[in-house]
Protein: Pyrrolo-quinoline quinone repeat domain-containing protein
Amino acid sequence: MRTGTRTRSAGRGRRTRVAGAALLGVALLAACSGGGEDTDGAAGDAAEGTEAVVEEEPEVPPAFAAEPAATLTEEAFTPPMPAAVLGDAVFLADHTGLTRFDAEGTETGRAEPEHPVIHVPDTIPEDSLDQAQAGVRSVQTPLAGEVNGTPVVFSGFPVQLPAGEGLEIIAADAGTGERVWNAAFVPEEWGAAPPRVSASTSLLGYHDDLLILQIVKDRMMSSTYAVSVPDAAVAWSDTDAHFALAVHEGVIIARQIVDGGLMGPLTGLSPVDGSVVWRKADDDTNGGAGFGPVLRVGLPGGLKSALVSTADGSVLVTDEDGLPTGSPPCVHEPTTDVVMCGADSGAVAVDADGAVLWSLSRDDEGWSGVPVGAEGGIVFVDRGEDAPPVAVNAADGEMVNEDSGVAPALFGSGFGVVRDGPVLNLHPRAD
Structure:
């Protein structure tokens, strides 16, 4: 059963009302061409302020070509999305660099670290468990930002520095793909104990010329760093007190590390200096993944999740509000600031304040599936091999296209990027 406020679905035919004054002119013209018969009646009816409805052509439903224009990679084996879109370009990260592709999928540039990259696997098992056992480091999602006012895409790599094993963050120019900036440092906790197997860097956010990083060593030990882009140097670090999860509206959402490494209560940190802004002392949730204004967390027992506010950690939505059980995939639609979470068992959408806009259960008629990506008020949903993907209005859950061709995860100027296991394909728009 859908609940919450319902609004008119995007993509339907629009109706334009024409005022009585305009209709009066039409009526007089018709009267003149018809020999003047019944002129008073036509003019009188129009003068009374009646309105006519003129149907316009319906908007073309959002869709993408079912067949790809290009394959960007067949080796995106590690779980995070290794790509980012900026304007008319796709930036694909791998273990040794960052490659730029244009809107047709043609490689147009590449940026690599200045220093030698370490922990480069000879082979990458396709199964994530095998990757963990083999110590394969994850290729993390690149992050869009700026260097001296120039749009760039950042990515991080473990490298060999003169002082020992460390990290190098690079920035590729959005237009050329060439490296235009880099910053390298040895994390302070690596001095006596460098990574034995692997290290990875998650770029969580960009705030007032500060890059917020979460560094994971040997898939276990973690620390939070802020790198000043103008100075190309570390601004501050939090090496053992918090595990950062996301950055939203000037706050780092993290978990306090307690009892020798366990994840404790949700905490808000200042990106300027890492100081504590708020802490939810009575928090009994676990984990956390950020989606704009909300964080999806696990509840005690391990079978249910909740959406909590990034502003203070308060619980906003649970399964009682329509959130599917387990850890349902979620997407953030930035145009409307709506977050939608869904699975085959149902879906729910909330606004920036956490208010439920609508929910959909397994028993309802209509669509069901996994939200993959969102753009322009529309969420694209993958329904598996037995049904075509659909496009859904984020604000009310109404289906606006029964077959969107594919369900992209990323969107650029005239194209979408679709992930099919380890394969990333570029699909042109069809609408």
